[in-house]
Amino acid sequence: MSSIALKYPKTGHGGSGQNPPVPGGGGDGRGGSGSPNYGERLRRARLGLAVGLTPVAMLFVSFTSAYIVRQGLPTLDERTNTYVRDWLSVSLPVTLLVVNTVILLVSSITMELARRQITRQAALAPVKSIPGVSVGNERSFPWLNITVLLGFAFLVGQWLAWRELGDRGFYLATSPSSSFFYLLTGSHAAHLAGGVIALMVAAITALLQRPVEARRIVVDVTAWYWHFMAVLWIYIFALLWFAR
Amino acid sequence: MATTHQIHAHAAPEGFIRKYIFSLDHKVIGIQYYFLALAAVFVGMFLSLLMRIHLIWPQAVLPLVGEIKPETYLSLLTMHGTIMVFFVLTTAPQGGFGNYFLPIQIGAPDMAFPVLNMLSFWTTFVAFVVMIAAFFVTGGAPLHGWTGYAPLSALQNAGPGEQLGADLWITSIAIFCLASLMGALNFITTTLDLRAKGMTLMRMPLTVWAWFITAILGLLAFGVLLSAGILLLLDRNLGTSFYVPLVVVNGQVMGHKGGSPLLWQHLFWFFGHPEVYIAILPGMGVASQLLSTFSRKPIFGYKAMVYAIMAIGFLGFMVWGHHMFMSGMSPFSAFSFSLMTMAIGVPSAIKTFNWLGTLYKGRIRFQSPMLYAIGFVSLFVSGGLSGPFLAQPVLDIPLHDTYFVVGHFHLIMGVAAIFGMFAGTAYWFPKMFGRMMNEGMARIHFWVTLVGTYAIFMPMHYLGLAGHPRRYSQLTELAYLKDLIPLQTFMTYAAFITIGIQLVFVFNLFWSMFKGPKASDNPWESTTLEWSTATPPPHDNFGGVTPVVNHGPYEYNVPGAPRDFTMQTDPAGVTSH
After folding, report:
1. Nearest residue to B394 (alpha-carbon basis) of B459, B348, B342, B463
2. Smallest Cβ distance to A58: which of B7, B24, B224?
3. Which of A66, B84, B213, B456 is 20 to 30 A from B205 via CA?
4. In tens digits, what is the pLDDT along chain B, a chain of 577 residues?
């Protein structure tokens, strides 16, 4: 277990650990104690994530509007020289997509359990650092690792869905509807892969003796991102289903 | 979010690379952005000079580009617009000055996420390199204008420059979007979370308000441009038909079918119009700050200024259709877009009125920063007044593809924003580099630039009213354009002089950096936080002291105060205000 004394932490992260702690005011300009204030950093990171999710939402809002507009657009048919409706409904690989949805929702739950687990660990860290104090040996269930695995499973599932769609003859450039299917699911998968990488970073930092409080921030923020990705997937699935 | 564990209170770096190249210090990053924009503006100006020379001497063989064919002219036009809009107007006012002064003006030791800040600068740099690379690939730079209208931009064989050059162009824009989003995230989080004690939202300098609202605009707009760029890349390279209808190029039927070129226009202008405000709002902030400081008066109507910035930002998202009146949109849509556009005149007029109200009965100090700020207001009014003309479909349709529009947006978005940057440079140079700029050179530069830019862009309005189309490289083949050539010649000479005088500005910049007289901590007797710290500011901005704010940002000549300005950090109760 990490045993870090909160009283004398290093101030210089990021390769400047050899610098001595700056007394008084070397912190974030508020506390003035020179200690990294994890509470403030967590709040700041969460705020940053909320701000950062806005352009992600805008990206999909933009795709959605393009989708709806394109769907209603007539196309010039060169043989008859008339405008016709050319929107072909994609036959979705529904079973596979439902399985993937379940995997993602379960991963959202395990992610939340991982977040709560590390929150608890971070809260107990100062107590544990007192010599001679034991808070019992909590067996830490690897929720984080399970989430990473489920994330990979979802990505593989999506890849299988694309393969199945290809077998049915729908490729990226086949029809406008299949273009949008690949576009929406692909963009979502790319974003989710980013979340998987962040979780793997968190898992690796666990091995690097980083203070549990610092790791908690990464896990916490990624957890909210993960939940957002789950909601976003439900939205995309609903869009693809109801606006066929 | 692997960067979140990097707290902003990083220690001062030691080595050259950590200190000046991959620095986490927002001040160094701000200066990096500034110099990137300075390099870009010279590339952009050089391209515009080539175009102006070609317009009056079409046969001339020019250095670096040789003979200018119509498609070469279009490449110059595209790259001039793109480089200026993205790498100058978006980069310097927000990335440059915003990065340097937003944290200091709110009393923060750095940005909220320093590593992200560094990444956003270097991503911008990569975007610039990719953009410049488009000149040097087979076929050269793209032809589709900075607006990249499909299907021209979406087909590989639509013309020279539409091959690899266009791919590089879109890739560069996409990278730039990511960089801007990272920057905007940082600006917003910093403003919301890192303000010093006492720095309430309504005590923030108007510069901070401008940068903050600009960041929000960027956050909402760049994601949409990114989505548009992704679709364009798919159309170009993977055979989709988002933007490309059934189209025949050189007698050859392309594989695309059913796409909508208007879809690109909608997505692009949903970004493009807010982008106009991304370029101009920081200039408005600087003008407000300087007019108050150098008139020795509080800004007239502080709250009205704040709400006007918000209103401009909000309305900026509702008017993109006014760029598309030519596209055959429904007159009902056109009417609503027109109405919203006219509505932006209201907050803009409030701002102008308040600037004039600030000057009224002030003890004006006509130093060079003030001259540039007044120049900003002048150009903002001259360029802005043609806005309501173009906002009306009935006038826009005949004027849209003429020089009238070119004159309009160059005055308001180009030159006014550039004057905001000049003002910012003159005002903050002492704080950034510890020395004063040469006042004589600055005055000469100001007057020649002001007169010169008016001489270039005012006649464009007449050209436009006379029906002179934009984007034409040859003027000699149409009889009715021949009479307008003397005016074009005049504009080209004006451009020579105006561009020439910029060398004085650059000389002044570098000469003063090393040879200028040492600056005191507060040479302009300003009130905001950056003037309460050392010159240049220490690594953590306030030398270990946490500033506490007791005053509003523009308390000049407050009755009962000991001097004619009250710093924001002065103890409370000194004034009755």
Report:
1. B342
2. B224
3. B84
4. 333 333 445 667 778 888 888 999 999 999 999 999 999 999 999 999 999 999 999 888 887 788 888 899 999 999 999 999 999 999 999 999 999 999 999 999 999 999 999 999 999 999 999 999 999 998 899 999 999 999 999 999 888 889 999 999 999 999 999 999 999 999 999 999 999 999 999 999 999 999 999 999 999 999 999 999 999 999 999 989 999 988 888 888 888 888 899 999 999 999 999 999 999 999 999 999 999 999 999 999 999 999 999 999 999 999 999 999 999 899 999 999 999 999 999 999 999 999 999 999 999 999 999 999 999 999 999 999 999 999 999 999 999 999 999 999 999 999 999 999 999 999 999 999 999 999 999 999 999 999 999 999 999 999 999 999 999 888 877 888 888 999 999 999 999 999 999 999 999 999 999 999 999 999 999 999 999 999 999 999 998 888 999 999 999 999 888 899 999 999 987 544 4
Q: What CATH homologous superfamily does B280-515 map to? A: Cytochrome c oxidase-like, subunit I domain (1.20.210.10)
Q: What is the DSSP string of B353-405?
A: HHHHHHHTT------HHHHHHHHHHHHHHHHHHTHHHHTSHHHHHHHTTBHHH
Considering Cα of A198, then A203, then A209, then A215, what sign does the dihedral take? positive
Beta-carbon separation of A62 and B113 below 8 A: no
- Choose among A45, A138, A25: nearest CA to B538: A25
Q: Structural domain boundaries of chain B?
A: 17-259, 280-515
Which residue on chain A is closest to B255 by alpha carbon? A173
Contact flag A59-B546 (C-beta cutoff 8 Å): no
The C-alpha of A32 sits at a distance from chain B's nearest C-alpha, in angstroms, of 8
Q: Are B160 and B143 in contact (CB under 8 A)?
A: yes
CB-side exposure of B149: number of CA atoms within 13 Å? 7
Count of A-B CB contacts under 8 Å? 172
Which chain B residues are within 8 Å of A65, Cβ to Cβ? 266
Write the ipTM: 0.91
Nearest neighbour of B220 by CB, restricted to A16, A58, A76: A58
Q: In this complex, is the C-beta atom of B213 within 8 Å of any C-beta atom belonging to chain A?
A: no
> Which tokens is B48 given?
């515009």
CATH superfamily name and code, A87-242: Cytochrome c oxidase, subunit III, four-helix bundle (1.20.120.80)
Q: Chain A partners of B546 at a C-beta cutoff of 8 Å?
A: 25, 29-30, 32
Chain B neighbors of A52, CB-CB under 8 A: 1, 181, 185
Please list the residues that pair with B66 across neighbouring strands: B62
